[in-house]
């Protein structure tokens, strides 16, 4: 009995440390993305470049937003199911989230290619370097999505080995929070690009 209580205390401490470390990680990423978006806004406003028309903005970047919402929704459903000890729906929602995340990366790749083409054309015309900066920000976000897919894959592998239940699922919670964070960052970034037209 005493041994079980010690292991429960140790597990709670591990959970607390993991969540605290994750909070610090998210805080540092938030500062990085806010600083990057502020730099974009300053460069965009001081360049005197003509406004970007919505028609010339890569539609794949707008379409990828739907995929990002899909990943967040699937992760939300996965957490809800593991809390109720519904293992089969939990694993299905994790697989759904992984598939949608890959679809997001496909849209992002198309958008990055379009931004690179727009950047080359703008440089030839001597207009602005804003598309290059947009390319960089979208690429950094896509790299964080790749990290999220790796994290999600690890959670999925452990879920297939019954590592999570209604009492022990904080790793799934952290993974879902990371995807929600990426969702918010993407919406803010896309909004900054479109409002800066």
Strand content: under 5%
Q: SSE string, helix = H, strand = E?
A: HHHHH
Mean pLDDT: 82
Task: Please provide the count of β strands.
Answer: 0
CATH superfamily: Cytochrome c oxidase, subunit III, four-helix bundle
Radius of gyration of CA atoms, rounded to a whole number:
20 Å
CATH topology: Four Helix Bundle (Hemerythrin (Met), subunit A)
Cα(first) to Cα(last) distance is: 65 Å
Structural class: mainly alpha
Poorly predicted tracts of residues: 4-8
Classified by CATH, the class is Mainly Alpha
Query: What kind of oligomer do you see?
Result: single chain
Family: Belongs to the cytochrome c oxidase subunit 3 family.
Membrane topology: Multi-pass membrane protein
Organism: Bremerella volcania
GO molecular function: cytochrome-c oxidase activity; oxidoreductase activity
Which characteristics define this entry?
5 helices; membrane; mainly alpha; Cyt_c_oxidase_su3_a-hlx; 197 residues; Four Helix Bundle (Hemerythrin (Met), subunit A); transmembrane
What does this structure look like?
The protein is an all-alpha fold. The protein has a single domain (2-195), classed as Cytochrome c oxidase, subunit III, four-helix bundle (Four Helix Bundle (Hemerythrin (Met), subunit A)). Helices cover 85% and strands 0% of the residues. The chain contains five helices and no strands. It has helices at residues 2-47, 59-83, 87-125, 130-160, 170-195. The chain is elongated, with a radius of gyration of 20 Å. It starts with a helix and ends with a helix. Mean pLDDT is 82; it is low at 4-8.
């Amino acid at each position: 009995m005493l041994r079980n209580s010690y292991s429960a205390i140790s597990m709670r401490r591990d959970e607390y440390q993991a969540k605290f470390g994750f909070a610090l990680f998210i805080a540092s990423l938030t500062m990085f993305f806010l600083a990057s978006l502020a730099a974009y806004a300053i460069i965009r406003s001081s360049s005197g470049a003509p406004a970007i028309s919505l028609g010339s903005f890569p539609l794949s970047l707008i379409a990828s937003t739907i995929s990002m919402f899909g990943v967040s929704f699937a992760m939300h459903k996965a957490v809800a199911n593991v809390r109720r000890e519904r293992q089969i729906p939990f694993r299905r929602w994790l697989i759904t989230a992984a598939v949608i995340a890959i679809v997001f990366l496909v849209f992002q790749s198309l958008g990055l290619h379009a931004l690179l083409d727009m950047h080359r054309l703008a440089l030839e015309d001597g207009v602005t370097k804003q598309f290059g900066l947009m390319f960089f920000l979208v690429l950094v976000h896509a790299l964080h999505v790749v990290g999220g897919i790796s994290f999600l894959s690890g959670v999925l592998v452990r879920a297939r080995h019954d590592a999570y239940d209604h009492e022990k699922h904080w790793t799934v919670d952290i993974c879902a929070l990371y995807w929600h964070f990426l969702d918010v960052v993407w919406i803010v970034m896309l909004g900054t690009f479109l409002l800066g037209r």
